[in-house]
Amino acid sequence: MFQRGGSEYSKRMSEKLSIGLLFGGESPEHEVSIVTARAIAEHLDPSRFIVRPMGIARNGVWVVTDDPFARLAAGELPARSDHPFLPLEKGAEATPLPDLFFNALHGAGGEDGQIQGYLELLHRPYTGAGLLAMAAGMDKWITKRLWESEGLPVVPYAGLTEERWLRERDGCLTECGKLGLPLFVKPANLGSSIGVEKVKRGEDLAAALDRAFTFDRRVLVEQGLDIREIEVAVLGGDEPLVSQPGEVIVADEFYTFEDKYLQGRSRTEIPAQIPEELADLVRKLAAKAFAASDGYGMARVDFFLERLTGRIFLNELNFIPGFTSISMYPKMMAASGVPYAELLSRLIDLALVRHTQSAAKTKGFHSGSNWFQG
Protein backbone atom coordinates (compact mmCIF):
# COMPACT_ATOMS: atom_id res chain seq x y z
CA MET A 1 0.00 0.00 0.00
CA PHE A 2 1.00 3.65 -0.04
CA GLN A 3 3.55 4.13 2.75
CA ARG A 4 4.04 7.38 4.60
CA GLY A 5 7.70 8.26 4.36
CA GLY A 6 9.39 10.33 7.09
CA SER A 7 7.71 12.88 9.32
CA GLU A 8 4.40 14.31 8.19
CA TYR A 9 5.03 17.96 7.41
CA SER A 10 7.92 18.95 9.65
CA LYS A 11 10.48 19.10 6.87
CA ARG A 12 12.93 21.90 7.38
CA MET A 13 13.01 24.60 4.75
CA SER A 14 16.39 23.27 3.64
CA GLU A 15 14.89 19.90 2.67
CA LYS A 16 13.31 19.31 -0.69
CA LEU A 17 9.65 18.37 -0.87
CA SER A 18 8.65 15.40 -2.96
CA ILE A 19 5.83 16.41 -5.32
CA GLY A 20 3.47 13.77 -6.67
CA LEU A 21 2.48 15.22 -10.03
CA LEU A 22 -0.93 13.80 -10.94
CA PHE A 23 -1.95 13.81 -14.60
CA GLY A 24 -3.82 11.86 -17.26
CA GLY A 25 -7.06 10.47 -15.88
CA GLU A 26 -10.16 8.86 -17.33
CA SER A 27 -11.81 12.00 -18.67
CA PRO A 28 -11.91 13.15 -22.32
CA GLU A 29 -9.27 15.74 -21.32
CA HIS A 30 -6.66 13.02 -20.72
CA GLU A 31 -4.34 14.24 -23.49
CA VAL A 32 -4.55 17.89 -22.43
CA SER A 33 -3.58 16.86 -18.91
CA ILE A 34 -0.43 15.11 -20.14
CA VAL A 35 0.71 18.28 -21.91
CA THR A 36 -0.10 20.40 -18.85
CA ALA A 37 1.86 18.11 -16.52
CA ARG A 38 4.92 18.00 -18.79
CA ALA A 39 5.11 21.79 -18.66
CA ILE A 40 4.71 21.82 -14.88
CA ALA A 41 7.45 19.19 -14.44
CA GLU A 42 9.83 21.27 -16.53
CA HIS A 43 9.25 24.41 -14.45
CA LEU A 44 9.09 23.17 -10.84
CA ASP A 45 12.03 24.62 -8.91
CA PRO A 46 14.62 21.80 -8.62
CA SER A 47 16.21 23.51 -5.60
CA ARG A 48 12.95 23.07 -3.65
CA PHE A 49 11.16 20.10 -5.15
CA ILE A 50 11.68 16.52 -6.26
CA VAL A 51 9.15 15.75 -8.99
CA ARG A 52 7.52 12.33 -8.96
CA PRO A 53 5.24 11.97 -12.01
CA MET A 54 2.13 9.91 -11.24
CA GLY A 55 0.08 9.25 -14.33
CA ILE A 56 -3.45 7.91 -14.27
CA ALA A 57 -4.06 5.70 -17.29
CA ARG A 58 -7.31 5.75 -19.25
CA ASN A 59 -8.45 2.68 -17.28
CA GLY A 60 -7.99 4.52 -13.97
CA VAL A 61 -4.82 2.73 -12.86
CA TRP A 62 -2.07 4.88 -11.34
CA VAL A 63 1.21 4.55 -13.25
CA VAL A 64 4.12 5.42 -10.96
CA THR A 65 7.14 3.43 -12.19
CA ASP A 66 9.60 3.83 -15.07
CA ASP A 67 8.50 6.85 -17.15
CA PRO A 68 4.80 7.58 -16.50
CA PHE A 69 4.78 10.31 -19.17
CA ALA A 70 5.97 7.94 -21.88
CA ARG A 71 3.71 5.13 -20.73
CA LEU A 72 0.56 7.25 -20.77
CA ALA A 73 1.52 8.82 -24.09
CA ALA A 74 1.83 5.31 -25.50
CA GLY A 75 -1.67 4.48 -24.28
CA GLU A 76 -0.58 1.77 -21.85
CA LEU A 77 -3.35 0.24 -19.74
CA PRO A 78 -1.52 -1.48 -16.85
CA ALA A 79 -2.97 -4.09 -14.55
CA ARG A 80 -4.40 -2.83 -11.27
CA SER A 81 -2.97 -3.80 -7.90
CA ASP A 82 -4.36 -6.93 -6.26
CA HIS A 83 -5.15 -4.75 -3.24
CA PRO A 84 -8.79 -3.81 -3.96
CA PHE A 85 -8.67 -0.44 -2.21
CA LEU A 86 -5.63 0.80 -4.11
CA PRO A 87 -5.67 2.41 -7.57
CA LEU A 88 -1.93 1.72 -8.06
CA GLU A 89 -0.55 -0.49 -10.81
CA LYS A 90 0.30 -4.05 -9.87
CA GLY A 91 3.73 -4.35 -8.31
CA ALA A 92 3.84 -0.74 -7.11
CA GLU A 93 1.97 -1.25 -3.83
CA ALA A 94 4.93 -0.10 -1.69
CA THR A 95 5.20 3.27 -3.42
CA PRO A 96 5.84 5.90 -0.71
CA LEU A 97 3.48 8.82 -0.45
CA PRO A 98 4.90 12.13 -1.69
CA ASP A 99 4.94 15.10 0.66
CA LEU A 100 2.38 16.89 -1.51
CA PHE A 101 0.29 16.22 -4.59
CA PHE A 102 0.24 18.68 -7.49
CA ASN A 103 -3.06 18.16 -9.26
CA ALA A 104 -2.77 18.52 -13.04
CA LEU A 105 -5.82 16.37 -13.80
CA HIS A 106 -8.32 18.08 -16.10
CA GLY A 107 -11.98 17.16 -16.16
CA ALA A 108 -13.88 14.39 -14.40
CA GLY A 109 -11.92 12.59 -11.71
CA GLY A 110 -9.49 15.42 -11.10
CA GLU A 111 -11.53 18.59 -11.30
CA ASP A 112 -14.81 17.52 -9.74
CA GLY A 113 -13.93 16.65 -6.16
CA GLN A 114 -13.15 12.96 -6.66
CA ILE A 115 -9.37 13.14 -6.36
CA GLN A 116 -9.66 15.77 -3.63
CA GLY A 117 -11.72 13.38 -1.49
CA TYR A 118 -9.18 10.59 -2.00
CA LEU A 119 -6.22 12.82 -1.12
CA GLU A 120 -8.06 13.99 2.00
CA LEU A 121 -8.27 10.34 3.06
CA LEU A 122 -4.51 10.05 2.52
CA HIS A 123 -3.98 13.11 4.77
CA ARG A 124 -1.75 14.76 2.23
CA PRO A 125 -1.81 18.39 1.02
CA TYR A 126 -2.71 19.04 -2.60
CA THR A 127 -2.78 22.06 -4.86
CA GLY A 128 -5.94 23.88 -5.79
CA ALA A 129 -9.37 24.16 -4.29
CA GLY A 130 -11.10 21.66 -2.02
CA LEU A 131 -13.80 19.11 -2.71
CA LEU A 132 -16.79 21.45 -2.44
CA ALA A 133 -15.41 24.11 -4.77
CA MET A 134 -14.21 21.56 -7.29
CA ALA A 135 -17.50 19.67 -7.44
CA ALA A 136 -19.52 22.87 -7.85
CA GLY A 137 -17.04 24.55 -10.19
CA MET A 138 -16.84 21.59 -12.53
CA ASP A 139 -20.56 21.74 -13.27
CA LYS A 140 -21.25 24.81 -15.42
CA TRP A 141 -24.96 24.72 -14.58
CA ILE A 142 -24.39 24.65 -10.80
CA THR A 143 -21.76 27.36 -11.13
CA LYS A 144 -24.25 29.67 -12.84
CA ARG A 145 -26.82 29.04 -10.14
CA LEU A 146 -24.27 29.92 -7.45
CA TRP A 147 -23.33 33.12 -9.24
CA GLU A 148 -26.96 34.06 -9.77
CA SER A 149 -27.55 33.69 -6.01
CA GLU A 150 -24.84 36.32 -5.49
CA GLY A 151 -26.34 38.68 -8.07
CA LEU A 152 -23.49 38.14 -10.55
CA PRO A 153 -24.25 38.52 -14.28
CA VAL A 154 -24.55 35.35 -16.38
CA VAL A 155 -25.70 34.69 -19.94
CA PRO A 156 -29.36 33.53 -20.17
CA TYR A 157 -29.41 29.73 -20.15
CA ALA A 158 -31.36 26.54 -19.65
CA GLY A 159 -30.12 23.48 -17.81
CA LEU A 160 -31.31 20.01 -18.83
CA THR A 161 -30.84 16.54 -17.36
CA GLU A 162 -30.75 13.47 -19.55
CA GLU A 163 -33.67 11.97 -17.63
CA ARG A 164 -35.86 14.96 -18.42
CA TRP A 165 -34.68 15.03 -22.04
CA LEU A 166 -35.71 11.41 -22.55
CA ARG A 167 -39.04 11.99 -20.84
CA GLU A 168 -40.13 15.30 -22.42
CA ARG A 169 -38.09 16.21 -25.46
CA ASP A 170 -40.68 18.65 -26.80
CA GLY A 171 -40.82 20.56 -23.52
CA CYS A 172 -37.05 20.81 -23.39
CA LEU A 173 -36.87 22.07 -26.97
CA THR A 174 -39.55 24.66 -26.25
CA GLU A 175 -37.69 25.91 -23.16
CA CYS A 176 -34.41 26.18 -25.06
CA GLY A 177 -36.14 27.81 -28.03
CA LYS A 178 -37.21 30.73 -25.83
CA LEU A 179 -33.55 31.74 -25.62
CA GLY A 180 -33.54 32.47 -29.35
CA LEU A 181 -30.89 31.57 -31.91
CA PRO A 182 -28.04 30.91 -32.13
CA LEU A 183 -27.55 28.66 -29.11
CA PHE A 184 -24.54 26.99 -27.56
CA VAL A 185 -24.96 23.43 -26.31
CA LYS A 186 -22.41 22.31 -23.72
CA PRO A 187 -21.94 19.17 -21.59
CA ALA A 188 -22.07 20.64 -18.09
CA ASN A 189 -18.99 18.83 -16.78
CA LEU A 190 -16.46 18.99 -19.60
CA GLY A 191 -13.75 21.48 -20.45
CA SER A 192 -11.41 22.34 -23.32
CA SER A 193 -14.51 22.96 -25.49
CA ILE A 194 -15.02 19.20 -25.87
CA GLY A 195 -18.61 18.43 -26.89
CA VAL A 196 -19.55 22.11 -27.38
CA GLU A 197 -21.68 22.92 -30.43
CA LYS A 198 -23.10 26.12 -31.86
CA VAL A 199 -26.67 25.66 -33.09
CA LYS A 200 -27.89 28.15 -35.71
CA ARG A 201 -31.12 26.43 -36.80
CA GLY A 202 -33.91 25.23 -34.57
CA GLU A 203 -34.17 21.92 -36.41
CA ASP A 204 -30.55 21.10 -35.43
CA LEU A 205 -31.02 21.53 -31.70
CA ALA A 206 -32.33 18.04 -30.87
CA ALA A 207 -29.40 16.31 -32.56
CA ALA A 208 -26.92 18.60 -30.78
CA LEU A 209 -28.52 17.77 -27.44
CA ASP A 210 -28.38 14.05 -28.21
CA ARG A 211 -24.66 14.35 -28.89
CA ALA A 212 -24.05 16.40 -25.74
CA PHE A 213 -25.79 13.77 -23.63
CA THR A 214 -23.32 11.15 -24.85
CA PHE A 215 -20.71 13.02 -22.79
CA ASP A 216 -22.73 13.98 -19.71
CA ARG A 217 -26.15 13.48 -18.11
CA ARG A 218 -26.32 17.25 -17.49
CA VAL A 219 -26.25 19.74 -20.36
CA LEU A 220 -26.21 23.52 -20.50
CA VAL A 221 -27.86 25.48 -23.31
CA GLU A 222 -26.84 29.13 -23.55
CA GLN A 223 -28.05 32.08 -25.53
CA GLY A 224 -25.57 32.80 -28.31
CA LEU A 225 -24.30 36.36 -28.16
CA ASP A 226 -21.88 38.33 -30.33
CA ILE A 227 -19.07 38.61 -27.80
CA ARG A 228 -15.39 39.06 -27.08
CA GLU A 229 -13.79 36.46 -24.78
CA ILE A 230 -12.06 38.08 -21.79
CA GLU A 231 -10.21 36.08 -19.14
CA VAL A 232 -8.42 36.69 -15.86
CA ALA A 233 -6.23 34.52 -13.65
CA VAL A 234 -6.83 34.27 -9.90
CA LEU A 235 -4.22 33.11 -7.38
CA GLY A 236 -4.61 32.79 -3.61
CA GLY A 237 -7.29 32.41 -0.96
CA ASP A 238 -9.55 34.94 0.78
CA GLU A 239 -7.75 37.95 -0.72
CA PRO A 240 -6.45 36.57 -4.02
CA LEU A 241 -4.27 38.18 -6.62
CA VAL A 242 -6.32 38.82 -9.76
CA SER A 243 -4.33 39.32 -12.96
CA GLN A 244 -4.85 41.94 -15.58
CA PRO A 245 -7.37 40.70 -18.15
CA GLY A 246 -6.39 38.95 -21.35
CA GLU A 247 -8.42 38.32 -24.48
CA VAL A 248 -8.77 35.30 -26.72
CA ILE A 249 -9.21 36.60 -30.26
CA VAL A 250 -11.08 33.71 -31.79
CA ALA A 251 -10.48 32.70 -35.40
CA ASP A 252 -13.61 30.54 -35.71
CA GLU A 253 -17.17 31.08 -34.49
CA PHE A 254 -16.05 30.01 -31.03
CA TYR A 255 -12.88 28.75 -29.38
CA THR A 256 -12.95 25.07 -30.36
CA PHE A 257 -10.80 22.21 -29.06
CA GLU A 258 -9.18 21.86 -32.48
CA ASP A 259 -8.20 25.51 -32.54
CA LYS A 260 -6.98 25.50 -28.94
CA TYR A 261 -4.66 22.52 -29.22
CA LEU A 262 -4.24 21.43 -32.84
CA GLN A 263 -4.59 24.30 -35.30
CA GLY A 264 -3.63 27.35 -33.24
CA ARG A 265 -5.40 29.84 -35.51
CA SER A 266 -6.76 31.95 -32.68
CA ARG A 267 -4.48 34.27 -30.78
CA THR A 268 -4.34 35.86 -27.37
CA GLU A 269 -3.71 39.42 -26.31
CA ILE A 270 -2.43 40.37 -22.86
CA PRO A 271 -3.46 42.83 -21.64
CA ALA A 272 -6.87 42.90 -23.28
CA GLN A 273 -7.59 46.10 -25.15
CA ILE A 274 -10.49 47.27 -23.02
CA PRO A 275 -11.06 50.48 -21.01
CA GLU A 276 -9.42 50.56 -17.59
CA GLU A 277 -12.76 50.92 -15.79
CA LEU A 278 -13.99 47.78 -17.52
CA ALA A 279 -10.78 45.95 -16.63
CA ASP A 280 -11.32 46.93 -12.98
CA LEU A 281 -14.90 45.65 -13.12
CA VAL A 282 -13.75 42.34 -14.60
CA ARG A 283 -11.20 41.87 -11.82
CA LYS A 284 -13.78 42.67 -9.13
CA LEU A 285 -16.32 40.28 -10.61
CA ALA A 286 -13.66 37.57 -10.89
CA ALA A 287 -12.79 37.88 -7.20
CA LYS A 288 -16.49 37.72 -6.26
CA ALA A 289 -17.08 34.71 -8.52
CA PHE A 290 -14.03 32.95 -7.03
CA ALA A 291 -15.24 33.57 -3.48
CA ALA A 292 -18.84 32.56 -4.27
CA SER A 293 -17.53 29.17 -5.44
CA ASP A 294 -15.31 28.74 -2.32
CA GLY A 295 -12.27 29.06 -4.56
CA TYR A 296 -8.75 28.47 -3.33
CA GLY A 297 -5.36 28.21 -4.94
CA MET A 298 -6.04 29.11 -8.53
CA ALA A 299 -8.70 29.60 -11.14
CA ARG A 300 -9.11 31.08 -14.57
CA VAL A 301 -12.33 33.09 -14.74
CA ASP A 302 -13.81 33.61 -18.20
CA PHE A 303 -16.09 36.44 -19.27
CA PHE A 304 -18.16 37.38 -22.30
CA LEU A 305 -18.10 41.03 -23.35
CA GLU A 306 -21.10 41.69 -25.59
CA ARG A 307 -20.00 43.77 -28.56
CA LEU A 308 -23.30 45.54 -29.16
CA THR A 309 -24.11 46.63 -25.61
CA GLY A 310 -20.75 46.50 -23.77
CA ARG A 311 -22.35 44.31 -21.10
CA ILE A 312 -20.09 41.88 -19.27
CA PHE A 313 -21.18 38.34 -18.34
CA LEU A 314 -19.44 35.64 -16.33
CA ASN A 315 -19.04 32.58 -18.50
CA GLU A 316 -17.28 29.93 -16.40
CA LEU A 317 -14.36 29.32 -14.10
CA ASN A 318 -11.72 26.63 -14.36
CA PHE A 319 -10.08 25.49 -11.12
CA ILE A 320 -7.47 23.42 -13.01
CA PRO A 321 -6.64 25.73 -15.92
CA GLY A 322 -4.24 24.64 -18.61
CA PHE A 323 -0.52 25.10 -17.99
CA THR A 324 0.69 24.41 -21.52
CA SER A 325 2.94 26.82 -23.39
CA ILE A 326 -0.13 28.44 -24.98
CA SER A 327 -2.34 28.47 -21.89
CA MET A 328 -3.77 31.77 -20.76
CA TYR A 329 -3.50 31.24 -17.01
CA PRO A 330 0.32 31.20 -16.67
CA LYS A 331 0.66 33.83 -19.39
CA MET A 332 -1.67 36.24 -17.58
CA MET A 333 0.08 35.60 -14.27
CA ALA A 334 3.47 36.22 -15.86
CA ALA A 335 2.19 39.50 -17.31
CA SER A 336 1.04 40.44 -13.80
CA GLY A 337 4.45 39.84 -12.24
CA VAL A 338 4.34 36.14 -11.31
CA PRO A 339 6.56 34.07 -13.64
CA TYR A 340 5.82 30.39 -14.26
CA ALA A 341 8.24 28.82 -11.75
CA GLU A 342 7.22 31.23 -9.00
CA LEU A 343 3.56 30.57 -9.77
CA LEU A 344 4.04 26.84 -9.21
CA SER A 345 5.92 27.47 -5.96
CA ARG A 346 3.14 29.75 -4.72
CA LEU A 347 0.52 27.09 -5.48
CA ILE A 348 2.49 24.55 -3.46
CA ASP A 349 2.89 27.00 -0.57
CA LEU A 350 -0.85 27.70 -0.63
CA ALA A 351 -1.53 23.95 -0.48
CA LEU A 352 0.69 23.62 2.60
CA VAL A 353 -1.05 26.56 4.30
CA ARG A 354 -4.52 25.13 3.64
CA HIS A 355 -3.47 21.67 4.85
CA THR A 356 -1.98 23.11 8.05
CA GLN A 357 -5.18 25.05 8.71
CA SER A 358 -7.29 21.96 8.16
CA ALA A 359 -5.09 19.76 10.36
CA ALA A 360 -5.50 22.23 13.23
CA LYS A 361 -9.28 21.88 13.27
CA THR A 362 -11.00 19.66 15.82
CA LYS A 363 -11.88 16.47 13.97
CA GLY A 364 -13.41 14.26 16.62
CA PHE A 365 -16.05 14.48 19.32
CA HIS A 366 -16.43 12.48 22.52
CA SER A 367 -19.68 12.78 24.43
CA GLY A 368 -18.24 11.48 27.69
CA SER A 369 -20.93 8.81 27.77
CA ASN A 370 -21.11 5.18 26.66
CA TRP A 371 -24.52 5.65 25.04
CA PHE A 372 -23.26 4.51 21.64
CA GLN A 373 -21.83 1.18 22.80
CA GLY A 374 -25.14 -0.63 22.61
| CATH architecture label name of the largest domain | 2-Layer Sandwich
Name the helix and strand elements from N-terminus to C-terminus, one letter apiece.
Answer: EEHEEHEEHHHEHHEEHEEEEHEHEEHH
The portion of residues assigned to helices is 25-40%
CATH class of the largest domain: Alpha Beta
Q: What is the CA–CA distance across the termini?
A: 34 Å
CATH superfamily of the largest domain: ATP-grasp fold, B domain
Biggest sheet character: 6 strands, antiparallel
How many domain regions?
3
Oligomer type: single chain
Number of helices: 12
Q: How many β-strands, per DSSP?
A: 16
State the CATH topology of the largest domain: D-amino Acid Aminotransferase, Chain A, domain 1
**Overall form:** globular
- Unreliable stretches covering 5 or more consecutive residues: 1-10
SSE map:
Elements lengths: L2 E2 L12 E8 L5 H14 L5 E8 L5 E2 L4 H6 L22 E2 L2 E4 L10 H8 L9 H8 L1 H10 L7 E5 H6 L1 H9 L5 E5 L9 E3 L5 H8 L5 E6 L3 E10 L4 E2 L3 E4 L7 H7 L3 E3 L6 H17 L4 E10 L5 E7 L9 H8 L4 H20 L15
Parallel strand pairs: 1-5, 2-3, 2-6
Antiparallel strand pairs: 3-4, 7-10, 8-9, 8-10, 11-12, 11-13, 11-15, 13-14, 15-16
